[in-house]
User: What shape does this take?
Amino acid sequence: MQARPAYESLAHLGVHRQTRQHTDPEFRVAYQWLVEQMARRLPTDGPEAVWLWARTTWRDLAEDLRLEGRQQDSVLLEVAVPMDAALVLPFDDWHQVLNGMLHVPPLPRETDGAWWARAEPLLDDFHRRVDAALGDKAIHARHDRYPPGLRQELTGSWEHLFDPLTWPAGCRLQAVVHELRAEHVVRALRYP
Assistant: This one.
């Protein structure tokens, strides 16, 4: 889903890149981490991420369309982007990065209850160590202000986001690319 002016620019210039002005400042640190991952993992380059759905349900997409369309004059793009130009990750697990939380991926065929029994002590231990290191400031600290060892442990846990073997079955997948090119567009539908 793109704002109509972004789509018109893509059609006119042949390329669309996201600009920093459209990135929520509250999540700047998380987005910067993702941009660094893109630079490390993709053969393309660019300053920001353009977000795409890689896999979702029609029901979820319809809800997204309803919400997006109410906010702006939008264009729904169906695109075919080369796989080596896209970084794919689970939508729900991305929120661990946005919230600066340790990511504990489920094991294959692990139930929610078994996952929580395994994850809860790991999460509690990590938070105890953050609290011990930062004291009263821990509750308001962004992860980029953690001591280096804790920061590395946290960001290292996020590496699982890019491992398809750790993705929950049937999860919604999103992708990020450095740019959309006009030749990637399969179909464009104005919404609403």
